[in-house]
Amino acid sequence: MDRIAPTAPPPELQIRAPQLDAEKGPAATAAERRFAEHIAASQGRVLPDDVHVQLDAESQRFVAILTDSNTEETLRRYPSESQLAYSRAVMAYLRALNGPQK
Question: Strand locations in the chain, DSSP E?
Answer without folding.
Answer: 50-56, 61-68, 73-78
